[in-house]
Structure formats: structure tokens, C-alpha cells
Specification:
β1 and β2 form a beta hairpin. The chain is globular, with a radius of gyration of 19 Å. Helices cover 71% and strands 1% of the residues. A two-stranded antiparallel ribbon has the order 1-2. The protein has twelve helices and two strands, in the order ααααααββαααααα.
């Protein structure tokens, strides 16, 4: 399965297409119009809901893969523990993205978060402790290092040293196809350079969520660029499930836009700009 043209796989092609269309919409439709930009990038806007839904789906997908591996070999192996841990971490990221549904449910932040959270929200990633901005000073740098290592350095090294890929997969992890990784990183770089908005980082998070959902699916579920047995072994079933998964991604985009419109007035800045 490792030699299949991964970039043309329907799930990866759909994820890249969604990311590209989102970038072009932000660049060409919103452009320098701050009201339009805020309508896309605000808290609980369509971009943020797309992140949440994609991270949630990814957490469920990782948990499903771990369960399927457990069924085949019911013991606590390292790869199963890693998959369960990643599922929990991604679920945490999804909940953090929407501040644990704080704005949806309409509850005020406890005093601790009002004092130590730079956005006065009930979440961890916007905490400021001892003058250190957890998101800007730590998380962004860690994500950058991990992202470059996982998407560029290790895949390039693995081309000449297959043992690196075997070692990564022995840990329960995988290496993304280099073509998909380049598409993801190029869009991240372009969005940071060409979009002038304080919340343009939301685009990078969306691109990452789409990228990792699609590459996790093709690696573990159908065995693209992956040397261990796939969850779905029959090739005909792989094709059918892949098309359904691509349709799911499109459906998540539609739902996120509906949610973004429904919660369009939750951001105070957006309220001010729109005259609300």
C-alpha cells in the first residue's frame, strides 16, 4: 500500500481542496475587509467550528482504530496506548477550541480564568502564567517543531533510511505522505504571509485539523504510505469507505458554516463592527 499515489486519494484530495477553497475565500472574498474577515475568523465562527468538528471526528477515528487493534490483539501494547493517548489529546484540543462550550451554554468563567486567561475564557491554551503566554510562547513553538519534524524531516529521512519509518510505526505512529504534508505547510505559510488579521492563526489550525484527519484515515484505515496491516483490508471496501469519508468532510464543512452563522454574534468585536 505504501506505493499508492496518496495525493490522489479521495480523502486527501478532499481535505486539500477544502483547505485551498477556505484560503481562497478568506483571501479573495474577505481580503482587506475587516468585517468579512472577522465574520470568518471570530470566536465560534465557521472556521473555528470547522476546526472543532474535524478535531472531534479525528479523536473518534483514532479511538476506533485503537479499538480495532485491540480486537485483533487484546493486550495493552504500546501502539494501542499511543493511539488512545492521541485520541484523548485531540479530543482535548477540540473542547479547548470552543472553550468547553462556554459560550454555547452561556456560563461565565470562574474567577481563576478571569484573572489568568488572556481572553477571559474557560480554557487552558490562552492562559498567562507568570507573564508567560501559554499559547504564543510555548504551544505555538512546540506545534511548529513537531509539525516540521513529523511532516518534513522524518519523511525525508525515511526515504533513504527505511528503518526510521519502521521505528515510527512501531510506536503506533505514522508518517504523512510528503505530497500532502507539503500542500498543508504551503497553505499555512501563505495564510500567515497574505492574510492580515490578528486571528489568521485560526486558518493554520483548520489546515492542520483537515490534514491530520485525512492522513490518519489513509494511513491506518486503508494503508496508504503505511507498512502495517490496514483496519480495512478489502480493497473494494477501502474505496467505498474512502468515498464516504470524503463526503463526511464536506458535510462537516456545511455544518460548520451553519453553526458559524448561528453563533455569529458571540464575538464582542464582531458585534461592534456589524453594528449589533
Amino acid at each position: 500500500m505504501g506505493n499508492r499515489n496518496s495525493f490522489l486519494h479521495p480523502v486527501i484530495a478532499t481535505a486539500v481542496g477544502i483547505n485551498l477553497l477556505t484560503f481562497l475565500l478568506t483571501l479573495l472574498w474577505a481580503g482587506d475587509d475587516m468585517i468579512r474577515l472577522w465574520s470568518l475568523l471570530q470566536e465560534d465562527g465557521p472556521i473555528e467550528w470547522m476546526q472543532f468538528l474535524c478535531f472531534t471526528a479525528l479523536a473518534g477515528l483514532l479511538a476506533f482504530i485503537a479499538i480495532e487493534r485491540w480486537k485483533k490483539q487484546p493486550r495493552l501494547s504500546l501502539d494501542i496506548l499511543v493511539l488512545v493517548g492521541l485520541s484523548g489529546l485531540v479530543a482535548l484540543a477540540a473542547l479547548e477550541e470552543v472553550s468547553w462550550f462556554q459560550r454555547v451554554m452561556g456560563f461565565a468563567s470562574p474567577e481563576f480564568f478571569q484573572t489568568n486567561n488572556r481572553q477571559l475564557e474557560t480554557n487552558l491554551h490562552n492562559m498567562v502564567v507568570g507573564g508567560v503566554n501559554l499559547h504564543k510562547d510555548i504551544l505555538v513553538k512546540v506545534i511548529f517543531i513537531v509539525g516540521i519534524t513529523h511532516n518534513v524531516i522524518l519523511p525525508l529521512v525515511a526515504r533513504s533510511k527505511p528503518a526510521v519509518k519502521q521505528w515510527v510505526e512501531s510506536l503506533g505512529l505514522y508518517l504523512p505522505p510528503l505530497s500532502a504534508a507539503i500542500a498543508y505547510l504551503v497553505l499555512v505559510a501563505l495564510s500567515q504571509v497574505m492574510i492580515d488579521h490578528p486571528r489568521r492563526g485560526e486558518l493554520s489550525e483548520l489546515f492542520g485539523a483537515m490534514h491530520y484527519f485525512s492522513t490518519v484515515f489513509v494511513a491506518y484505515m486503508v494503508g496508504v504510505n503505511y507498512n502495517k496491516p490496514a483496519v480495512i483490508e478489502n480493497q473494494a471496501d477501502q474505496g467505498r469507505i474512502s468515498v464516504l469519508c470524503a463526503m463526511l468532510l464536506v458535510f462537516l464543512v456545511l455544518v460548520s458554516w451553519l453553526l458559524g452563522v448561528g453563533f455569529a454574534e458571540t464575538d464582542p468585536y464582531w458585534l461592534q463592527q456589524s453594528g449589533g
